[in-house]
Design a protein that fits this description.
Blueprint: H1 2-27, H2 32-46, H3 52-66, H4 72-89, H5 95-118, H6 122-138, H7 142-158, H8 162-178, H9 182-198, H10 202-219, H11 222-238, H12 242-259, H13 262-278, H14 282-298, H15 302-318, H16 322-339, H17 342-359, H18 362-377, H19 382-431, H20 434-485, H21 489-495, E1 498-504, E2 512-518, E3 524-531, H22 535-552, H23 559-574, E4 586-595, E5 600-606, E6 610-614, E7 622-626, E8 633-634, E9 646-649, E10 655-659, E11 667-668, E12 673-674, H24 677-687, H25 692-707, E13 716-722
Antiparallel strand pairs: 1-13, 2-3, 3-4, 4-5, 4-8, 5-9, 6-7, 6-10, 10-13, 11-12
Helix pairs in contact: 2-3, 3-4, 3-5, 4-5, 5-6, 5-7, 6-7, 7-8, 7-9, 8-9, 9-10, 9-11, 10-11, 11-12, 11-13, 12-13, 13-14, 13-15, 14-15, 15-16, 15-17, 16-17, 17-18, 20-22, 22-23
């Protein structure tokens, strides 16, 4: 017990030393008014003559002053205040004294909850806020209860429970309006505006923001102004009103520079960098990101520091400075991974994957792309993930152990059988004659030769099986990588009313592909592509083609211009492929850009046609064909000729079909001839009135029936979209 007391005393002494060191280091950062207040608080704490009510209040006040510069001191100081208040509440007190201690205790618990909330320890934060609110209700401290309601609203917002967040924000606002707490009203208006902003109701969000802004201006509250200026800037940024956003970000930064609010300054620098990168002003974007990084490192804001690293990595990726891009991306990943920041791990993994794609490191690209998806979809806690991993390891070990034991048992049986056979042979030899001995010697020699031959055959068979398995595993691994680049069902379903995709590779992986993306003008593009080759070479070419399309749509929305830019990217990437002519690979493809708001279809086709069946549910239905440009997307005699863009009006019930040449070119039927484009048109016309899923099943069944026992000669991809 004595040893424990010594350790406890040493620990308290250490806390005091750390606190005083931090206090002295930060003292010079405060305004003269705050320094005067700190001096008064310090005198109360050090003096033995002041009552415990004042001392407890002094510790709470000190924690609130230091919270903006060193949040780690808050819990220590508030714990002291809590101990003083709790100890005195156990005594017999007058009503005013009891009320005072309860008020101080509630404030201390509230401040501890605030620290846990900032560290994303939401369960602990709710626990302390709830205890604080219970004491305020018991103490009839309705005015102070508003702060507790507001803080609980913040937690529910962070947890994604928007109705609960709005409920508690309005509870807080109601109390503040009752007591005419102008500052509190402005804070509540800002918080409610922020919720509506994140929910996408920009008009209502601005209404609340400007109401709060007006009150902060009347009060001359600079911290509040800086906060709400930044929020308004972020709202305009989300609406792509970059000029207005820049103006409000600068207003916020000027105030935070004046207040020496380092965390706020770091946020403003980051926001300014985001605008400058969109304006392609890389120098300013790098400068402000570096400033933000320096401040976040100084104040040990690990999550913010990681975010700055990732943003710098993105910029250097666009500048093709792979060394710096990888350095910053991995710095961000290390911080996220070390601290368990799932969002940071997702962002940094996605960036590392994109860098790897640009460098042609497909395995790294796949691994980190898959990790980013896992982080995005993650709903499990770290504890459950660890438990699953442990369970999986246990299962794998036990499985391998059973397999090893079975293999050993088989070997033991074989050994016993061989030993029994040898004993029989020895006995037979012992009772045999010389001729039998000679005859056995000849047989034994033949047996040895046969055994060696069998061993050689078994080794060769095993080697072939291993190589076959390695090849098969590699192909399936490649198929998993390729699948992540294709348009996923979630994206397609979110943009299209009804559609089907008939995708049937010749081998496991495919040169054909289908890809989709939402464009900068909010239209939706769907590409049906047929890359040079099929199998593994075709699949690798499809990844190059998809990444080239992704690059093109970063800035282009016109389908012809998308193909023009894609063609240039493909030619540049393949010009040093080592072939005599220098990269004549590419793809045939069609692109449909759906502007469903204006009922317009913008298309471009390279060697592959686009068909539209109109009035599909009537007897007068007809097939409209958009003829393709007779040139591929790649190196060609016409590579300097621009692709043609077509625009057509869309009507409800239109069905748009895009396809590669695999379906009509398939050999089959009684005469083993090609299916032919004409027959495919007639088939589509005959089924266009049916639901698209039924059309897909009919097309697949017809293809398999036509092919019969013959080999599939090419990859097949047919897409149907109904308006």
């Amino acid at each position: 017990m004595k040893l424990l007391k010594i350790e406890s005393s040493m620990r308290n002494l250490l806390y005091i030393i750390i606190f005083l060191t931090s206090f002295l280091r930060l003292y010079s950062q405060f305004t003269p008014e705050e320094q005067s207040q700190l001096d008064s608080i310090h005198k109360i704490i050090q003096s033995k003559t002041y009552h415990d009510t004042l001392k407890a209040q002094a510790y709470v006040m000190l924690s609130e002053i230091l919270a903006t510069t060193n949040i780690d001191t808050v819990i220590y100081l508030c714990n002291i205040a809590e101990q003083i208040a709790t100890k005195n509440l156990e005594k017999t007190l007058s009503k005013p004294e009891k009320k005072s201690f309860k008020t101080t205790l509630a404030a201390a618990l509230n401040n501890i909850g605030y620290v846990h909330m900032n560290k994303s320890n939401y369960n602990l934060a709710l626990k302390y806020y709830t205890k604080s609110n219970e004491i305020e209700l018991e103490n009839n401290g309705k005015k102070d209860l508003a702060s507790g309601y507001n803080n609980i609203g913040l937690i529910y917002f962070d947890l994604g429970d928007i109705p609960k967040a709005i409920e508690y924000y309005h509870k807080s606002l109601q109390i503040k309006e009752e007591f005419n707490d102008k500052k509190g009203i402005a804070m509540s208006l800002n918080n409610i505006g922020y919720v509506y902003d994140k929910q996408g109701d920009k008009k209502l969000a601005l209404e609340y923001y400007f109401k709060g802004l007006q009150i902060f201006k009347e009060l001359g509250n600079k911290k509040g102004l800086a906060m709400i200026y930044n929020n308004i800037g972020t709202l305009y940024f989300s609406q792509k009103k970059y000029k207005e956003a820049l103006n409000y970000y600068k207003l916020s930064l000027n105030i935070r520079l004046e207040l020496n609010d380092k965390k706020g300054m770091a946020t403003c620098y980051q926001n300014l960098a985001s605008i400058y990168i969109l304006e392609k002003n890389n120098d300013l974007s790098i400068l402000y990101n570096q400033k933000s990084l320096e401040l976040r490192t100084e104040i040990e804001d690990k999550q913010g520091e990681a975010y700055s690293y990732i943003e710098l990595g993105k910029i250097y990726l666009t500048l093709n400075d792979m060394k710096k891009a990888k350095l910053y991306a991995h710095n961000g990943y290390e911080i996220g991974n070390h601290n368990g920041f799932i969002d940071i791990i997702e962002r940094s993994s996605d960036l590392i994957s994109k860098i790897a794609i640009k460098e042609g490191d497909w395995k790294t690209a796949y691994d980190y792309h898959n990790l980013a998806i896992q982080m995005h979809d993650s709903v499990s806690s770290k504890a459950s993930i660890k438990a699953i991993a442990n369970q999986q390891a246990k299962y794998t070990y036990e499985k391998e152990k059973i397999i090893a034991e079975n293999e050993q048992a088989k070997k033991d049986v074989i050994t016993q059988q061989n030993q029994k056979t040898q004993r029989i042979i020895i006995i037979s030899i012992a009772i045999g004659l010389v001729l039998s001995l000679l005859f056995f010697a000849l047989l034994f020699k033949r047996f040895r030769v046969t055994q060696k031959q069998n061993e050689i055959i078994q080794k060769q068979k095993h080697l072939i099986e291993v190589k076959h398995q390695e090849i098969s595993d590699s192909i399936h691994y490649a198929e998993r990588i390729q699948r992540t680049f294709l348009a996923n069902e979630e994206l397609m379903s979110s943009q299209l009313k009804e559609y089907f995709v008939l995708f049937k590779p010749k081998d496991v992986v495919s040169g054909d592909f289908y890809w989709a993306s939402k464009l900068n003008n909010n239209s939706f593009a769907v590409v049906t592509g047929d890359s040079t080759g099929h199998g593994v070479p075709g699949a690798i070419m499809s990844l190059l083609n998809i990444t080239s399309l992704e690059k093109a749509v970063e800035h282009e929305t016109d389908p012809a211009q998308i193909f023009n830019v894609t063609r240039n990217i493909i030619i540049n990437r393949l010009k040093n492929d080592g072939s005599k002519d220098g990269g004549k690979d590419g793809m045939d493809a069609s692109i449909c850009v759906y502007d469903l708001k204006n009922m317009k279809l913008h298309t471009t086709a390279a060697n592959n046609p686009i068909w539209i069946v109109r009035d599909s549910s009537t007897q007068t239905k007809k097939l409209i064909e958009i003829k393709p440009d007779k040139m591929p997307i790649g190196k060609h005699d016409k590579q300097d000729v621009c692709f043609t863009s077509h625009t057509m009006d869309l009507y409800i019930g239109d069905v748009i079909y895009t396809l590669t040449d695999g379906y009509p070119d398939q050999f089959g039927g009684n005469d083993e001839k090609k299916f032919m484009t004409k027959n495919l048109k007639n088939l589509i016309l005959s089924i266009a009135h049916l639901p698209l899923k039924e059309q897909q099943e009919i097309l697949l069944t017809k293809f398999n029936d036509w092919k019969g026992s013959l080999e599939q000669i090419d990859d097949v991809c047919v897409i149907g979209v109904k308006i």
